[in-house]
User: What shape does this take?
Amino acid sequence: MHHIYRNIICSFFLLLLSHQLVEAQKNLLDPPRIAVGLKGGYYSSAVGFTTEPISQSPVLAPTYGFLFKYNAEKFFGLQVELNHITAGWGEFNQEDFTETVYERKLNYISLPMLTNIYLGKKNFQFVILVGPQFDYMIGESKEVITTLDNQRYDYYDRAANPFVVSIAGGAGVNILTKYGHFQIEGRFSASMTDVLKADSRSSTNRSVSTIGGLTFSYILPISGWKAKPSDDNTSEAPSKSNDNWEIRNDQ
Assistant: This one.
């Protein structure tokens, strides 16, 4: 199932990338729009293992970080983030699903590099994001709550890979106001590499993490957002609306 999700996401990403290359020379912005912001929210995560049927409970953890936006085109842009995220899973007793017997959490510094697609005009936009994500592990915790002789898998003692590559996607809305931009977004990512090291080809040697959740971002425009001055040499004072953070007239 995880392979199906990853193939769908990869195909969607390639389709969006090819479309962007075709439209690259249209709707150019001069100067480009630049913005920075803070984001936070909650993610739910799980880890899938091949072949072995394992009943899991997801791990819910906060996420927070910084983002940078660069838009050289009217409907396309780049969003780069630096976040703290947590991936992991809990495991139920196979004979009693009310009892958790194992839990593991992996903490990462995450670097998503996402293509943005904007739909809408004026002060309300729909946003679609897709691209690669690079995660570097900074710590982990694990707990064997109950030891069961008939339920102890090889990954209990396997070390985590320090570096994981994922494909990420999301969708949401971006509201532009004179006080800043407010972006609400649902995000999903699936790892393309294993989160745990595998020394041998066992039944649970593949370990793929999936993360999804909701985030809120507060974004401050830096440059390229005010209306572009006209080329005439009139001595009229700039309009009052230019003093606000608002979308340009060429949107």
